[in-house]
Amino acid sequence: MHTPVAPAAAVLTFEHVSRRWRAGILGSTREAVALDDLSFAVLPGEVIAVTGAAGAGKSSLLLLAAGQAAATAGSIHWRGSPDPGAVRPQLIGARPWEYNFLTVRQALAFHADVLALKDDALAAPTRFVPLMASVGLRGRSRTRLGQLDAIDRLRVVVAQALLAAPGLICCDEPFAFCGPEERRQGVRLLRSVADRGIALLLATREESTLAAYGLADRTLPLERGRLGPVRRATRSVLELAVRSPEDAMARLASRLPSLARRGRRLRVPLLGSTPEAILALCRDVGVRVRASRVAEEGLGPLPAYPHR
Length: 308
Hints:
Layout: E1 12-22, E2 31-42, E3 47-51, H1 58-65, E4 73-78, E5 90-92, H2 104-114, H3 129-134, H4 150-162, E6 168-172, H5 180-194, E7 199-204, H6 207-213, E8 218-223, E9 226-227, E10 231-232, E11 234-242, H7 245-252, E12 260-262, E13 265-269, H8 275-284, E14 289-298
Parallel strand pairs: 3-7, 3-8, 5-6, 6-7
Antiparallel strand pairs: 1-2, 1-4, 8-9, 8-10, 11-13, 11-14, 12-13
Helix pairs in contact: 4-5
């Protein structure tokens, strides 16, 4: 076992962190191990997928990372400080608290009061307009939470988290109620948050879904509270063998911005699309596909940390 050497810029570091919860009825002394000797670090702007089955310890990890529970053993630092206030981490789920009678603006105002934010320089009716626009809620100010679909509810909880100007957002199953198109929108939303330099810890049982959408930069697999080998993230791509790669690139580039060429083959990240949809697009623009297959590709090398 090695002590993790975290980069100075790390937003979050776990060093040999364990967490035990009191199990059973009130007054019981029996304890269950939720997390066992975890060491890792997270950089600004990284999207880290925390994966594992139910009971693996994902929610416990998020509680500790968000500063809402303390480690039983080991140490946690936020930008080098033992105080989570150095990062103001936020913990969110897939939807806001069940105050369905509130409008979007009222939900943000309520959360600002919870955070004890002071921004009286902005007029109350308009102070959240830029934030709502930045997460895709333009024009939804007076819509009640109970009238929102799953993706707009996720936009609300992301906006509530952004009110705190956090360095880290911990997301517990953020796509739990989303369909395929809503997941695509949710991926774009969370990636836009990471592009601001905010780190994301994303707990999910849907590792294959994350791979399909190419959201995570790294994966932290948990099994019974222990951290498995940290893996670089992968994404699913469709490889296309075509007669003329140059002509195909010219015809498809405007319709498939993520299209890339590797030798005589083209590679298209699926990002939630189906191979059938991409092949249909090829037919529509006159590109003849001689052969195709779905493959997995890594999204880059693992960083020099964490060391276990």
